[in-house]
Design goal:
7-stranded antiparallel β-sheet; 12-stranded mixed β-sheet; 8 helices; mainly beta; globular; Jelly Rolls; 551 residues
Length: 551
């Protein structure tokens, strides 16, 4: 997609919500994604000193570009482009007004809350549970708003607090249908079909089934050895991997250990260093152990794990399971792939995924310490070349000694009346694309980036959706948390480099017996023939911070 001069219908844009194949298409000059949000505007980059100031500022509820009367300008952008996602933690009755292509009259003018609850300015509540999910109090809407020349979003007085608006802009020659405020019948049907496809995530039924081949294999992976799942020569693209193990029938402690002892490795085109390496459970979006959830590209239940990432190769594909445990493990896999021409495959990006913990690669780590100008940034992904950032699974191990003081409500109290300041998730995501000095994506909190809200306040639920999930959290939040955010329509293209961070306010040891440790599995595409800098991680490091508590 996104070739210069191409014309897209609204239905073409809706397909982007679930088109995993499009992620392997190299970005073109002029394609750019980012996020407008209400982040604290006191965080700045000082061009004179080359340093960042107030970089950990956290008053993120009401930031804006500028004011127009009593309204704030939340977004302003030249086209052609598409708004993919609106999110808010607290949309209220103040209006949202969206102006397209410099028109004097807004195409949307309605209470901000209604933007998430109404469709097409109709009377009944919206009925797209997968396009407009409420995730643990967070409001999300993935109904595309395209524009050709310009888009401006205003939020009127009383609109609420906290917003994200993710977008993509395209090369100037691309033709998009400018949104006029009404979704016609054909487009509404396309959205209904998309909502149904997202509901069927993880099932064979949402996949295109023509012209694919399937291979099934069962291997016993010896202790200290490897098992070969696929060794394919020639050109093609893998569209599905489903693995079955008996890990889900083990005890909780055994699950956690085995899902980290086993690692998955993928190599494309006879490369020596794998483009994919991660502990098995983490790669499939859950840690520690096995907990059921369904997203569009990844998911699992107690019997099997699935991946629908699109994995092209031009000279061959090799998938292995490494077993660093002390017992053999039997794994069965079903792999779907489609033959494609070598010339086509050579023009596609290659899929990468790596697991790491606190890996700053070649960054100056002094700047990221608590007295440095880059604190509290914690690196998710650092890579060079051309590609697309497509998401992350984040495993958070945040545990603390229970305070002696008894809270008046819930486990540790509410709001400013807590007996302990335990919350880990205030950290903003910050994505620097192609050497930006200031990130084109600057969020308002880790939970907001995922798509939920008010997560410092109980209860603490598990949830899933097509693009975001929390497969696990301890009942009292003390211990393990597992979250995912996948960028499909709103993937972040880069031409030269991508540096993705999320703020981490709590240190690995934030008090005598309290810990907050992150591990990230990152998913992205990058140009064929290039490598990333992440190396496999030792078993001892993978197994640390697993079994302090039982989940």
């Amino acid at each position: 997609m996104n070739q210069a001069g191409q014309v897209y219908t609204y239905q073409d844009l809706v397909k982007r919500l679930y088109d995993l194949e499009a992620l392997a298409v190299p970005p073109q000059a002029g394609e750019k994604s980012g996020c407008f949000s209400s982040f604290d505007r006191s965080s700045i980059y000082n061009a004179e000193t080359g340093l960042y100031e107030n970089w950990g500022a956290n008053d993120d509820g009401g930031g804006f570009i500028r004011k127009e009367g009593d309204s704030i300008v939340a977004m302003e952008l030249d086209g052609p482009g598409v708004i993919w996602r609106f999110w808010s933690a607290l949309p209220e009755d103040g209006h949202i007004r969206i102006y397209i292509d410099h028109a004097d009259t807004p195409v949307i003018d309605q209470p901000f809350r209604d933007y998430f609850e109404k469709f097409n300015q109709e009377g009944p509540p919206s009925n797209f549970p997968n396009l407009s999910p409420i995730l643990s109090r967070g409001r999300n809407c993935f109904i595309p708003i395209p524009f050709q020349r310009h888009c401006k979003v205003l939020l009127d007085k009383g609109w609420g607090a906290y917003y994200h608006i993710t977008y993509t802009t395209f090369p100037a020659e691309v033709q998009l249908p400018s949104f006029n405020g009404r979704i016609d019948k054909k487009s509404a049907i396309a959205l209904a079909e998309a909502d149904r496809i997202l509901q069927q995530r993880g099932m064979h039924s949402f996949m295109k089934t023509e012209e694919f081949s399937a291979e099934s294999v069962t291997v016993s992976v010896p202790a200290g050895g490897k098992g070969l799942l696929l060794n394919k020569q020639g050109a093609g693209a893998i569209s599905m991997i489903r693995m079955r193990t008996d890990i889900g029938r083990k005890s909780e402690e055994q699950q956690r250990i085995m899902a980290r002892q086993l690692a998955i490795s993928m190599k494309w085109d006879n490369e020596e260093t794998p483009s994919v390496w991660a502990p098995l459970g983490d790669f499939f979006g859950r840690a520690p152990g096995i907990k059921p959830y369904r997203s569009l590209p990844l998911g699992m239940n107690e019997h099997e794990m699935y991946s629908y990432w699109y994995l092209p190769f031009s000279e061959g594909a090799r998938i292995e399971i490494e077993n660093d445990g002390t017992e053999a493990c039997e794994i069965s896999a079903e792999i779907w792939y489609t033959p494609i021409s070598k010339s086509h495959a050579e023009n596609l990006l290659r899929f990468h995924s790596k697991w790491h913990r606190d890996d700053y690669l070649d960054l100056d780590t002094e700047r990221f310490k608590e007295d440095g100008d880059r604190w509290p940034d914690w690196p998710l992904l650092l890579t060079k070349g051309r590609g697309r950032f497509c998401g992350v699974h984040l495993h958070v191990y945040n545990t603390w000694e229970k305070p002696d003081e008894e809270a008046e409500t819930w486990w540790y109290g509410l709001w400013d009346r807590k007996t302990i300041d335990w919350w880990w998730g205030e950290g903003d995501e910050k994505f620097f694309v192609d050497g930006e000095s200031f990130p084109s994506t600057f969020g308002t909190g880790s939970e907001d980036y995922i798509g939920y809200a008010w997560a410092a306040e109980p209860p603490f639920p598990m949830f899933d959706s097509a693009f975001a999930s929390q497969p696990f959290i301890e009942l009292d939040a003390n211990g393990h948390t597992s979250v995912n955010r996948f960028h499909i329509c709103d993937n972040v293209p880069f031409m030269n480099s991508f540096e993705g961070f999320i703020e981490k306010y709590k240190g690995n040891h934030w008090s005598a017996n309290n810990q907050c440790v992150y591990a990230a599995t990152v998913y992205w595409y990058q140009e064929r023939g290039t490598s990333d800098a992440y190396m496999p991680v030792s078993l001892d490091e993978r197994l640390s911070h697993l079994n302090h508590r039982e989940g």
